[in-house]
Structures are given as C-alpha cells and as structure tokens.
Amino acid sequence: MSESSNALFLERRSYRQRRLMDALRLLPVLGAFLWAVPLLWSDAAAGGEGVATSRAMLYIFGVWALLALLAWALSSRLDRSPEKTDAPGGG
Amino acid sequence: MASLNLLIVVCLVYVALLFAVAFMAERAALRGRAAFLRSSVVYTLSLSIYCTAWTFYGAVGYAARSGMEYLTIYLGPTLVMVGWWWVLRKLVRIGRTQRITSVADLISSRYGKSNTLAVFVTALAVIGTTPYIALQLQSVTLSFASFARADPSSAVPADSRSTALWVAMGLAFFTILFGTRNLDANERHHGVVMAIALEAVVKLFALLAVGVFVVWGVGGGIEATLARIDASEIGQWQMDGGRWAGLTMLSAAAFLTLPRMFQVLVVENEDEHQLRTASWAFPAYLMAMSLFVVPIAVVGLEVLPPGANPDQFVLTVPLSQGQDKLAMLSFLGGFSSATSMVIVAAIALSTMVSNHVVMPIWLRFAGGGAAVAGDVRHLVLLARRVSIAVILGLGYLYYRVSGGGTALAAIGLVSFAGVAQFLPALMGGIFWRGATRIGALAGLGTGFVIWCYSLLLPSFGGGILMTDAVMAYGPWGIAWLRPQALFGIEGLDPLVHAVMWSLGLNTVVFVTGSLLSFPQPLERLQGAQFVNVFEHSGNPQSWSGGTAQSEDLLIMAQRMMGPAQAQALFQAEAARQGLAGYLPEPTPEFLQRLERELSGAVGAATAHAMVGQIMGAATVSVEDLLAVADETAQMMEYSSQLEAKSAELTRIAGQLREANEKLTKLSVQKDAFLSQISHELRTPMTSIRAFSEILRDAPDLSSHDMTKYASIIHDEALRLTRLLDDLLDLSVLESGQVSLNMRDGRLVSVIDQAVAAAGVAEERLTIRRDRTREDIGLTSDLDRLAQVFINLIANARKYCDATAPLLSIEVAQRGNAVVVDFVDNGAGIPTDSQALVFEKFSRVAEGESAGGAGLGLAICREIMARLGGEITYLPGQGGAAFRVILPVAAMRAAQ
Predict the structure, then answer these.
(1) Which residues contact B499 (CB under 8 A, 6 or more apart)?
(2) B580 neighbors B334 (Cβ within 8 angstroms)
(3) Distances from the Cα of B230 to the Cαs of A46, A55, B38, B235, in angstroms?
(4) Domain spans of chain B?
C-alpha cells in the first residue's frame, strides 16, 4: 500500500468506489453475524420451546437471498476497470 | 415401472451428450470462438462441482437425520463467495500472475518453489480426496440399486461392486479424454468446463423438479408442506451450536482448499469479472440447491416405510409415487453431480501428481537435462493419464474396503477436514509475509497427523484400522491420547473435536515455526510477490541470460508446450526484441516469461528446475546473487583497507624520500665537512709550517719580519684552537653533557653584551633596536644566550650583502614566550638551503671564506634546545631572518 501515491481527498466517484469496496468487505461479516443468530435460539433437544423448522428455514433462506441480492447490487455498481478498483481502500 | 435397462440406455445417451458438448467446446476453443466459454455464467456453473452427489443425495439424508445442520455445508461457501473481495480476488490474481496450476503449486510456489512442500500437499490432497471419490462411486451405485429394487423385471441383481467398477472406468476414460487432451500452458480445459456447466444445469433442474413435485404434487402446496415440516420429527430447531459454527467454518475452509474447487475457482478462471458475477450467482445457486432439501426429506420420511435409506429419498420418493420420468431425471442429476466432481478432482489431482511427484523424479533421473532427453510433453500427459487411472482406482479401492456402509455425509466431512489443513499455510501465504516454508511444513504435518489419528482412522469404524481398545482407552492405555478425546477433553462432537485440534494446532505450529525460522531469499521474494500481488506484478526469480542457449530453450519449450505454441512464443519474443526468426536473446525478462508459461504446464518448481538445467552455469540464483553481493561487500571493504594501507605507504614513502634526500644532503655535507675540516685545519697548518720553516731556515731575518711571522703563526694557532673549541663545544652540546649556568638577568643587557662582543662597532653594519621592549627579565644561561645572539649578529655582519647593511633586533612577547627576531636587509637564504642552515658545516655561500667553519648556527640550535627554546629561520622577511624563542619558564622566573 503505497501511501505516498494516495491522494488525501478523492473525487466523489472514486470515493463512492472506495466505500463500495468497504461494503463488499463487510458483506461476509454481516452474513456470518446473521447466520450466527440461530445459535441463540432455544434448543428443543435441551427441553426448550424450540423454533419451528419452517420458521428457521424462512429466516436462513431469507438471509441467503438478502446476501445474494446485496452481493449482486454491490458487484454491479463496482467500477468495471480492474486497475481503478485495485486501489487500496484506505482513503 | 422403471426399467433398469431403460435407465442404462438413458444414462449412456446422457454420457454421449456430455462427450459431444465437451468435444464441441474444445473445437470452438481451438477456432478461437470461445467467447461464450469464458462467460461468467459458465464459470459460475462450473463452480457447482462443489455440489456433488453428496449434496444431491446426501443433503436430504443429512436433513432427515439431523435437521437443518446440512445447511452449514453451503453457508460456508456462500460467505466465502460474497466475501470474494477478501480472499478469492487475491487468490485469482495470484493464480493468474504466477500461473498457478493447483493448490499444491500455489503453496509450493509461495514458499520458495519448494518441491518438498508440493509433494506433501499432493499426498495430503490425494489422501483427502480418495474417500470423496469413493463417496461418488457409492452414490451412483446406490442409485442404481434403488432403481433395481424398484424394477421387478430386472434380471441382474444389482451388484454394487461391478457397477462401481464400471462407473469408475467410464469416468477415468472421460477424464483422460478431455482432461489430458493437450498440455495447455494455462491449464484450462474448455471441454471439461463446458460439460460440467451442462451437468450443473441438469442437477439443479433435477433437484428443483423433484422439489416442486414434492411440495405441490405430494405436500399440497407451500403452506401445507411447511405444516408437514413442523409436524415431522425434524420439525423443531435442534442444533449443537458447536457443530453449526464449526461446520460452517469447515465448509468455508474446504471450499478454498479442496483441490477440485481450487481448480475451477482459480485455475480455470479467465478473468476477474467472472468472479464478480459468481459472487452473487453462486450463492443463489447454492440456495436453490438446498431449498427443497428439507421438504424432500420430510415427505420421504412420511411416505416411505421406516428403514428406507434417507440418502436415496431424491430417487425413491418419485419412484414410490410412480413418477418414473421424474426419477430418471433425478437419477441423471445425481449422476451429473457425481461425475462432474470426480472428473475435476481427478484432473486437479493428476496435475498435482504429475507436476510435483513424477516430473521432479524424472528430472532427477533423466540427468542429461530437459533439452536432451525424450519427449517431455508425452511424458507429462502419460503421467497424468496414469495418475487419473490410479486415483480413480484408489477411490474404488476405498469404496470396496469401507464397504459403502457409512453415511455419505460422514465421509464427506472427513474429507473436508483433511483438505482444510491447507488453510493456515494458504492464508498465511497470501496475507503474511513472515510465513515460512518450515512453518508451513510443520503446521501441515501436525494437522495431518491429528486429522489421521482423530478422524480418518476412526472413520473406518471400530476394529478395522484402530482397535476398540485404543478408541476407548487410548494407545497403551493413555487416556490423554484417546483419538476422540485428546488431552482429556471429553464430550465434544468427534468431528468438531478433530477439526478444532487439527486446525488449531496446525495454525499454532505454522505460526510458531514461521516466527522461529528464517526464510530462504527466494521464499522472501515470493512472499512479497504473493502478499503484495496487487501492487506489483513483477517476477521474483531472474535468470541471467547472455549465452546462446535459445535453441535449447526452444527445443525444451516445444516438448513442453507443443511446437506451434512454443514457436509462436519464441517468434513473438524475437520480434519484440527486434530480431528476425525464432531465436530471441535469452534476456532475463524472456526467461521469466518462458518459465511462467512452462509452469502452466508442469508447475512452478519443475519449470524453474528445467529452465535452470538449460541455463546451467549461466543461471544466477538469488542465493548466488546474495553470495556475490556478500563477496563484493567483502572485496570493497578489503579494497578500502588496501587503499588506506596504500595511502599510508605513500605517506611513509614520502617520508622516506624526504629522509633520504636529507641523508643524501647530509652525506654531501659530511663530504663537504671532511674537505672543509681538512681545509680548515690545513690552511692554518700550512701557514704555521711555512712560516716556522722560514724562521728556522732563514737566519738573516730582521726582527720585524720575525715578529711578523711569529704573530702569523700565533694567529693561525689561535684560529685552529677556535675551530677545535667550536667542535668540542658542539659535541658537548650534542651529547647533552653541557652544564648550564642559570641566573637572572635582563634581556637588554644580554643583547648589549652580544652587540659589543660581535664587534659590530668597527664595521659598517647598523643595528636597529628598541631597548624599552627589550627590557624583560629572564632566567637562563645568559652567557650561552649571548653566544647565540653573538653568532646571529656576526652572521649578519659577515653575510649581509646589502650596500647599507641593517640588522633589526625585534623583541616581542607572544603568549608565554619571548620572541627575538634578527632580521637583516640582505638577500637572505635561498629556499633550498633554509632546511640546512642549522646543520653542521653548512655554508650558504660556497667557497667564501668567512672565517667560520659552519658550526655557528648548529651550535646555536643546540644551545637553544638545551635552554628549552628554539631557533628557527623565518622566511619571507625581505632578508635573512632568524627567530629565537625563549620559553615561558625562562621569563616568568625573572618577574
């Protein structure tokens, strides 16, 4: 990451691109967090009330669809030229 | 009812279709009309080999047994794909810039092109993948068996062993045909990729079809199906949190490290845009694949008799409902899942085996070098074909040994855990420059051993490869080493336990080993290349060319890449260098490019070794360069030392020369002294002899004459005495035996005395003095000091050649010393004589008999040295100038 070549302020478009990359980086974190939620559900095997499998399915597949949608939205907005998007995301 | 024979025919037709598709794709690629082959859709579909028969059949069985846990296998890869910006983008970039051919190649290349590491990874990959291939064979066999049971007319009892054998052989044939058609520098297989893309569509379509049938055909719509799900035995959320998180992570790791996934993700990747599309399309595909798994499992549990194999629900549910065509489609889906996985896995593994095991061995034994020995392309292809056959044979063997009894999911997870051991070395390699070969080897070794011990061996079941006693009480009764409760930690799920310990210790050992070891230069360069792949795309290892070996290189390249491709490469390079023909200069850039092209065919380590063999002595490795640099530094240090010594010598030589000059002059002076002294002695002696003879032999001399002659004799005798006195005085002074008569006095009176004694009064020499300044008290040997002054004044009187001779005596106090200058207005002393005026018998004006023997100034110098001062010649004063410096002690004592 050659800091010297990084301008301190970027024009609006490059700035948007950088934030888009940040969002892309955060996407798997969001997914991991949302899919960790089932860990908090009370377990039927442990005598708890338990969550119905149908509800669990709706939740998990809902998150899945959301992730795919977000990934699509972010990827398609990302600049097509690879050289520009390769710039470090620090700025 | 479903006919087994019909099934076989459909199956064969389907295989023929796959052949045709693969063949056409290859043709299109050859003609350069392969734009659609490079499309993102094909790439995404080819990733679907992640969904093997394990997904197609096993997921349903998994769901029927453990509820929603099967999803973890797909959640991990989904997270990896949507997080492509982190890892996959980098892997793909590295794979493209470094021409990586397999996961073993990547790891080996990162850690200094180490072949040891490559062999190790290859072995681990083969061991980890073999159960997986067995799993595919088993699932195809089982599905045949399911059909056979449903077909009462089937004459042939479904012999699972022969079915598995036929399937294995058929797959080997297909893989060899399309996977090893040519040795492409890019290691891309358009035919195979196209075929698996088609299979991906078929299996998704088949599974969705079965799902739709189950939900709307059997279940009675979405609402009703959901109600059925909740009412079933898996209707409640039951999850071991450790397994949920652990399996998600494991599947994410395996997605990156499975050799077949690496093959389609990185090696077959054409550009990064494909990844962009796949980042959302592949999660969507996985979601679609797993969407109907639970409904199928629930309906299967309901409609089929208890004890039916849940792994076959995808087939048996349609069959039980009389939907033969749907079952056939479903069978083709499962068949597609199994075959596509086996084909790609076999290609990936055979690439690794031929590049990292066969080629290095051959290179070592061929000895003569890559350019001399036989057709390498042929050898590589042969090695790959044999490897494919051997790998499928191993899979079949595993299937026979394990007996096909274990649940599909269990085998798959064992395999996942095995290849996940690459993860620390892989991630460390692309994100941490400090990762070293030693660390990677140690970490992989540790992980592998623990995986074998705690997961692979127990997976065969008690008593087969590991006795029940060892399982229950540990080896030699050491409870701490129980395979499924290492270090005494009990109660963990065996899989989570094995994954935790193997990956955990693997990482710890990898990091520790890396921290403690020191990487080779090549490792460090490669590390920088990999970690900073986005910053620079240079190549680490440089070859130094210059010698005419282009022809050998061309011969080798032709054997590796095929004549047309090699010639095109060489010609293009020659044209770039501005040369005609096929032989470019073997510049480092060209050699780097060539090595990279070759590494696409045979792997980085082998390509490096082959180019190295040809470049031979002209090759400069980084180690060599470092050694040279080291030597250069030593040489420079040595030479600077030499320089210093030489400067010293020059200085000494200069001093010697000066000393020599002085000696020569002194020698001349000595000669002059001898002749001088003999002359000085002889002249008075001659006079004395002559006049004494006259006195003796001439009796009639007048008394006047007699007096005259006697006084001449007397004068001459006095002169002799004076000369002898001076000589004696000097030798006394020089030997240091002189006794000084120190007393107080005033400088002015000493000078007065000297002026009087020098006999200036009757001469024409004028003396200019400043008596007030001379009035300084001092303690010294005043007689000796006066002697010095007398000498200086006498010299001026004798030698000053001005018409009106003038001598200035200037006294000054300089710091702690009194300075007395005697300056006359004559011609002074020539520069070359100035150094000698204080030597004995030196006379500036040659041949002039001034009455002195040239001892005066020498005596003055000795006196001043005894008195603690000095006398020097003061140049540049317009005449002869002498400076007498009296020391501070002599002055202070008087005040």
Answers:
(1) B246, B250, B417, B420, B455
(2) no
(3) 18, 9, 44, 4
(4) 4-408, 541-620, 639-733, 741-892
- Determine whether the interchain pair A44/B237 forms a contact, defined as Cβ–Cβ distance below 8 Å: yes
For residue A31, the chain B residue with the least C-alpha distance is B79
Give the distance from residue A28's alpha carbon to the nearest chain B alpha carbon, in angstroms.
5
Chain B residues whose CB is inside 8 A of the A41 CB are 237, 239
Question: Distance, in angstroms, between B436 CA and closest chain A CA?
Answer: 22
Among residues 192-231 of chain B, which lie with CB inside 8 Å of chain A? 226-227, 229-230
Q: Where are the domains of chain A?
A: 11-79
Low-confidence ranges of chain B (pLDDT < 50): 1, 155, 185, 369-373, 537-548, 617-620, 847-850, 892-895
Superfamily name with CATH number, domain B4-408: Sodium/glucose cotransporter (1.20.1730.10)
Note whether ipTM > 0.90 here.
Answer: no
Give the distance from residue B40's alpha carbon to the nearest chain A alpha carbon, in angstroms: 13
CATH 3.40.50.300 fits B741-892, yes or no: no
Instruction: Establish if B80 touches chain A: CB-CB under 8 angstroms.
Output: yes
CB B103 within 8 A of CB B259: yes
Q: What is the DSSP string of B209-228?
A: HHHHIIIIIIS-HHHHHHHH
Residue in B82, B226, B535 closest to A31 by CB: B82
* Span B639-733 CATH architecture: Orthogonal Bundle (1.10)
Q: State how far the Cα of B892 lies from the Cα of B895, in Å rounded to an integer.
A: 5
How many CA atoms, within 13 angstroms, populate the side-chain half-sphere of residue B61? 21
Q: Look up residue B453 and give its DSSP letter.
A: I
- For residue range B768-799, list pLDDT tens digits in order: 888 888 888 888 888 888 888 888 888 888 78
